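Recall the central idea of this unit: under ordinary conditions, the amino acid sequence of a chain determines the structure it adopts. In this exercise we apply that idea directly, starting from the sequence alone.
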Amino acid sequence: MSINNLINTIIVMTLKKYFYALISVLLISAPISAQQKADQMTKRAKYYVFQQKDKIGKMDKVLNLKLSKMHATDRTIKIVYTKGNTNFVSLYPEMTEGKFKTEAQENRYVARNYCIWKVATDALASPSFASVIRNDVYTWLVDVVGPEGGEPLYSFDFKTQAVRNAIILCGGKMPANFKDYLSKTLVERALQSLLKDVYLPHDSAGFCNVLLKNQKLHVDLLTTHRGYPIMKENNGEGARIAWLGSFMKLSKSKRYFNDLLDIIRVRQVSVEIKVRDINNRADSAMFMIFPKEIIEYAQKPVVSETQIEGYIIGKLGGQKQEREHRGWFISQYGSSKNVLTAAVAPSNSNKVYEVVEEMPSFPGGKPAIISYIAKNVIYPGPCVDNKIQGRVVCRFTVTRDGHVKDVIVTKSVDPLLDKEAVRVISLMPKWIPGKHKGARVDAKYTLPVTFRLTASADEN
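Accordingly, the structure predicted from this sequence is:
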């Protein structure tokens, strides 16, 4: 073999070596196909189900459910629970009372959320299973049967999206206690109900229709030909402020109001308002209310429709004008909010005033106070027997909402008479709150209650 042939042979062998090495690298680094990825997810899901085998036959004492079967197919995980009996009783009455029509509905709701909580908790503990929840679409089909088996007492299903939503709802970390997670779901359920119940005040000859979808509330508002340009001016300020005010009126009195705001923040709930002219429905304008706006507005005072009506009557003079101009006034609420707040909204200050520009007053004035006390005071029997009488002076706070609180005795006559005076004042109906610098405030008030014995026991 000549030197040239030897060199050529060496070059060819070297090129082949590098060529095969390059092909190997390309094969190794080539992305897996969709089918291969699906197969990989299926294997991981089946392995998760295999890991649950030690839980088969175990009873959850709170839910009264025993895990009986669990099976995974390509895109479905089937689960069968056996219920300890066929009766339905409320599982968490302190949390769900009044929220469901029947105990069976409550049981189904609780069981479904228990399964979601369990799957989400397992996913966060297992990177392999977490990839299934994060990247694939699986459906859980759950049947709950009675002790004897047979037809399910109830069934439900959920998808991986529901598990992802649960993790988002809990800020990426599932509560260790199911009851804490259930509480969050109930608040979210209440929020969805509230969003659908928000009434958008307007002078509409049509209607206000709402649809909640994918954490966005779609509001379709038909308004009059006269009101349409007003509702859409300033980027829909009138429509947006009206919706925010109505939502706060519905939700701010709820004991879980702060939890509602947390869910709006976490879920990034937004509102899309579409305003249409009832005479020309093709003409429409659309405005958005973002989560940040809802949360910021929540810090402002709530102005009720009754207070708005009272203010309008005072400004426009008479019930007839109030009806006629109501839609106009609310549509202008955004630009008039400073005047309105000064007129009817409470102060943000927590101070309790001793003296204010307008002192609190009882509806009907002094005669109404005397009448209320006379009708409601019960003269203590021992004081009648011992002929004890006199004037008890009480001091209390009338809150900016008109409620009476913190009743104390500043001038005593007898412990029994003192106690009766405090009782009667504490039960008084709402007062007209005091005002200071145009805003309603908490203010102190002093009221004497006179106990006088007469010849007739009924007149004491």
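The chain has a mean pLDDT of 76.
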